[in-house]
């Protein structure tokens, strides 16, 4: 009787293992076909921006992540205006604050709100602007 129980347990474990392997294999193959695909993101590069602020100078290479291609095309068309605004807003953020994560996040939040306002002013949808991020941020302090 115990041999039958042991055989049943082993057979059950083999079946569970086969189901797990099948599940893992089908999970990987269905990922591309899934309806839960992340939305496509588009990026608009602004170019290098240098601004002076309290304590020194900062250089960033901002890019704008957009939810739609049209929004990024609009950002490309108004890039000079965006760049001027970034220089003005950046000057309000002291260099020592940009050395911290919180300072960088505050600058990022301010720049994102600025780009959203410019997009809205130019008859675009501000919610299509996801965020402004930095490929690079280099600060030079002045003693």
Topology:
Elements: H1 2-30, E1 42-45, E2 49-53, E3 56-66, H2 69-77, H3 79-90, H4 101-121, E4 129-141
Antiparallel strand pairs: 1-3, 2-3, 3-4
Describe it.
The chain has 143 residues and is of the alpha+beta class. The chain has two domains: 1-37; 42-141, 2-Layer Sandwich (Tetrahydropterin Synthase, Chain A). The chain contains four helices and four strands. The longest helix has 29 residues, at 2-30. The protein is elongated. Residues 30-37 have low confidence and may be disordered.
Radius of gyration: 26 Å
Quickly count the helices: 4
| pLDDT averaged residue by residue | 82
Q: How would you sum up the global shape?
A: elongated
Unreliable residue runs = 30-37
**CATH topology of the largest domain, which one?**
Tetrahydropterin Synthase, Chain A
CATH architecture of the largest domain: 2-Layer Sandwich
Number of domains: 2
> How much beta, percentage-wise?
15-25%
Specify the biggest β-sheet: 4 strands, antiparallel
Our measurement of the CA-to-CA distance between the termini, rounded to an integer number of angstroms, reads: 86 Å
Order of helices and strands: HEEEHHHE
CATH superfamily label of the largest domain: Band 7 domain
**Overall SS class:** alpha+beta
Q: Portion of residues in helices?
A: 40-55%
CATH class designation of the largest domain: Alpha Beta
Number of strands: 4
Characteristics of this structure?
single chain, 143 residues, Tetrahydropterin Synthase, Chain A, 4 strands, 50% helix, Flagellar protein FliL
């Amino acid at each position: 009787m115990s041999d039958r129980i042991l055989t049943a347990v082993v057979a059950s474990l083999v079946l569970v293992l086969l189901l797990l392997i099948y599940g893992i294999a089908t999970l990987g193959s269905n990922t591309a076909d899934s309806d839960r695909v992340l939305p496509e993101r588009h990026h608009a590069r602004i170019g290098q921006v240098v601004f002076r602020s309290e304590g020194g100078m900062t250089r960033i290479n901002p890019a704008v992540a957009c939810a739609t291609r049209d929004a990024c095309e609009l950002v490309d068309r108004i890039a000079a205006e965006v760049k001027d605004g970034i220089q003005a807003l950046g000057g309000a953020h002291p260099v020592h604050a940009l050395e911290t994560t919180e300072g960088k996040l505050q600058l990022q939040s301010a720049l994102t709100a600025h780009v959203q306002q410019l997009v809205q002013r130019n008859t675009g949808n501000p919610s299509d602007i996801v965020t402004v991020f930095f490929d690079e941020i280099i600060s030079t302090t002045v003693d």
